[in-house]
Design goal:
single chain; 5 strands; Arc Repressor Mutant, subunit A; two-stranded antiparallel sheet; three-stranded mixed beta sheet
Length: about 170
């Protein structure tokens, strides 16, 4: 079984969370992503500046804010849907550095599979690719610096849009 490294207790928690979300956000044969992120106060940005998806937590004016960034280039709507809920999983499961990167990804994948009913082979390839990039020190430093700049610019863009709506 793919998720044998998840404890039964953690699987039960994730299953329960997924069921609650289905009860509250199920519409037109799937979970209503837009309503979910709005209710959970998660800012969402679809952008051409990246490929894939990422969840980021940041402190803005002393308040913690969660963001999901997702690239505009998906070959399949089902892969995009999986990635969106994978990132929601990171936020709702309150993933921190206290869990290993693999454990966080395993839980987020399990969560997304429970929500979407789909498995994503793409995420397995991305996880393997990420592990390769994380080991060389220079690649990790470059990626960290580049991503930090991207997220700071994108957070500023989202906050400016929120101010315009106020």
């Amino acid at each position: 079984m793919k998720y044998k490294k998840l404890t039964d207790e953690r699987k039960e928690y994730i299953d329960s969370l997924a069921e609650k979300l289905r009860q509250n956000y199920y519409s037109n044969s799937k979970i209503d992503f837009q309503s979910l992120v709005k209710d959970k106060d998660i800012a969402f940005l679809k952008t051409e500046k990246m490929i894939g998806a990422m969840a980021v937590g940041a402190m803005i004016n002393g308040n913690e804010k969660n963001y999901i960034f997702i690239g505009s280039y998906y070959a399949s709507p089902s892969v995009e849907e999986f990635d969106k809920f994978h990132e929601v999983g990171h936020i709702l499961l309150k993933h921190t550095r206290s869990l290993s990167g693999r454990a966080r990804e395993r839980e987020a994948n399990y969560f997304a599979e429970k929500i979407t009913g789909k498995r994503s082979i793409v995420n397995e390839y991305l996880d393997a690719f990420q592990q390769v990039l994380m080991h060389p020190i220079k690649a990790a430093q470059f990626a960290t610096h580049s991503m930090k700049n991207f997220f700071m610019e994108s957070i500023s863009e989202l906050e400016a849009k929120a101010q315009e709506k106020s």
